[in-house]
Amino acid sequence: MAVREVSGGIKTLRMYLDGELADAVHDPSTGNIANPGALDLIGQRNWCGDYGFFFGAIDELSMYGRALSAEEVLGQYAAGVAGKCPACVPMPDGGVALWKGERDAVDSLAGLQGTMAGGVSFRPGEVGQAFQFNGTDGVVSIPDSPALSPHAGAQGAMSLGAWVYLDAYPAFDPVTQQG
Q1: pLDDT tens digits for 150-161?
Q2: Nearest to 119 by CA among 101, 132, 130, 103
């Protein structure tokens, strides 16, 4: 899970692995990192043309308009196969999008319907099914929405979480790209 926290003008990027904080660094960005009107993508960097594709599985991709706490991140990890469904582990407040990858690209929170193209299929995931990207041309395009802007949350805080499995570990492998 990746979390961007903003507190008193100080921006921090935190990366969690298996529910534990793996790294935290100062975020030096000063401008708007969003690109309004551009496609949001799952599985490819937006500005890379015919390369920059992810090779592996992505499951339960969710975005929040606020920074999740360490306890909330750990709770989602601990839920395991129970997932982020209301009957299992309640999804934390501030959720703006959730693509479960259950044989479609439907956003189950905001209705931001994704469009699958190229080598995108499905495979067993951590929770139900997951998107499977072939690393060559598989991508899910998401329509632009103000809710997906990193500046939609309080002072620019946001969180992005997913179960990710790499089939190979190349030098460049995007999970998501905005703008």
Answers
A1: 655 556 677 778
A2: 132
